[in-house]
Design brief:
It contains one helix and ten strands; from the N terminus they run E-E-E-E-E-E-E-H-E-E-E. The protein has 115 residues and is mainly β.
């Protein structure tokens, strides 16, 4: 796993039935203890100036998919710091091949620290 939160490995378009339905990227948790999904506050993703809100992003953690709303109430599923999460965004045609300017932010609360 790379040191950066946004990983270069795993950034690609996603195909289904021969058609590009969106794209995915992987991020890591920069916190050594891991967190439960309810502790994650998803943010917005900006790629080449195009904004994708938290409601457009599906998180895959531990082989399961979660929306921001599902994560908010999930206090049982744990995200381990050595396991990258895959973020999926539905976008017909995906992204053009080549380099992209990517910004993504999210917050994590910790049980022993005030929000």
């Amino acid at each position: 796993m790379e040191k950066q939160v946004i990983q270069s490995v795993g950034f690609r378009n996603v195909c289904q039935d021969g058609k590009v339905i969106g794209f995915q990227l992987k991020i890591r948790l920069p916190y050594y203890r891991g967190v439960f999904l309810s502790q994650i506050k998803p943010g917005r993703l900006v790629i080449d100036g195009e904004v994708f809100t938290k409601d457009q992003i599906v998180w895959r953690i531990g082989g399961e998919d979660y929306t921001a709303e599902q994560m908010r109430g999930d206090w049982k599923t744990h995200w381990h710091p050595l396991e990258p999460a895959t973020l999926f965004v539905a976008k017909e045609g995906g992204l053009a091949q080549g380099y992209h300017d990517i910004t993504y932010g999210y917050c994590v609360t910790h049980s022993y620290m005030p929000p």
